[in-house]
Amino acid sequence: MNFFRGGVRCTLPRKKFIPPTSNADYLVNLLKKLEVMMAETLSKTASQCKFEGLTPILNVKRISESIDYYVNRLGFAKDWDWGEPPTFASVSRGGVCIFLCEGAQGQSGTWMSIFVDNVDALYETYQAQGAIIRQAPTNFPWGMREMNVEDPDGHRLRIGTPIEIPSDEVDV
What we know:
Helix content: 25-40%
Structural class: alpha+beta
Strand order of the largest sheet: 3-6-5-4
Distance between the termini: 71 Å
Number of helices: 3
Number of strands: 10
Order of helices and strands: EEHEHEEEEHEEE
CATH architecture of the largest domain: Roll
CATH topology of the largest domain: 2,3-Dihydroxybiphenyl 1,2-Dioxygenase, domain 1
């Protein structure tokens, strides 16, 4: 068998066709081969799937108030909103994106961790902007200095910076 690849003529050796003993045997063997090929393909596909990111979806009571809080108190930017009036929106800051959904998808009280390079500077900014701070920056035994911030719907943001110093003696 001949074919062209990149302008070069390639010749494949011919395989001798051996007829199956019966059509049923042939179909059974073909199905077994297909099953093995599909299993190998699915296994490769699943193991090669790279996760790209994570975006939490927070249930909020009033989307306009939530957007205002994330933008004006926490320093996020409004990416977009959807609906008339809006019931779904996206806010982001740096590499962190959060979806806000009015009256659906989840419940209040969701916790999330956000990693920053200077939690102490952010704490001072958040104090000046009137953010709801539930815990000032504290050193924890797991090697993080974290503060705890709450939004108007009761969602908690554990915002922290990695540290290599001893923890403050706090109950966790």
